[in-house]
Amino acid sequence: MGRNKMLLELGGEPLVRRAARRALEAGLSPVVMVLGHEAERLRVELAGLPCDCAINPDYTGATSGSLHLGLERLPADVEAVVVLLADMVLVTRQMLDGLVAAAWREAAPLFVSRYGDVTAPPLLFRRSLFGELMAWTGEGCGKAVVQRHKAEAVYLDWPPAALADVDTPEDFTAAQALIAQA
């Protein structure tokens, strides 16, 4: 991107704040934001929101490191975690609500968002999978754990367009256009 994408403003707020706000609006609690590059600047952008911030000094390393830090911040009585990526800017509160509602209805250990043929966050893992998530290392928000439990998972289908994330300036321009149309 050439600059910290979490500080890019979309719909009048930085991506980091937008993601935290969506999680809070969906009733997720506690909300743990794992921050990396320019963590203090990101923390400032979260001011006023009831978020717990974990700082990942190895933010260029495997994504499992960030996931581990977030899981470690959760109180012992938390029964499940929703993993959400701030650069997936088209994930809506309604999608998060749907994920949580499905978890209330069904006892599966894992709830996976599906965009056409692609599975991606947000993901909901019950506490029974936390040990596997902590043991896992690599990329992809616990992809190996998702693969191991895919037969037990509940899948929620979302529009393929909602899979879009912001990784390049062109992605950001496209996201701005989509948000402006909404």
Verbal overview:
The protein is of the alpha/beta class and 182 residues long. 36% of the residues lie in helices and 21% in strands. It is globular, with a radius of gyration of 16 Å. The model has no long low-confidence stretch (mean pLDDT 94).
Short description:
This protein has helices at 15-25, 39-45, 63-72, 93-105, 130-135, 143-148, 169-181; strands spanning 9-10, 13-14, 31-35, 51-55, 80-83, 110-115, 118-126, 154-158.
SSE blueprint:
Elements lengths: L8 E2 L2 E2 H11 L5 E5 L3 H7 L5 E5 L7 H10 L7 E4 L9 H13 L4 E6 L2 E9 L3 H6 L7 H6 L5 E5 L10 H13 L1
Parallel strand pairs: 3-4, 6-8
Antiparallel strand pairs: 1-2, 5-7, 6-7
Tags for this model:
Spore Coat Polysaccharide Biosynthesis Protein SpsA, Chain A; two-stranded antiparallel sheet; 7 helices; 21% strand; alpha/beta; 182 residues; 8 strands; globular; single chain
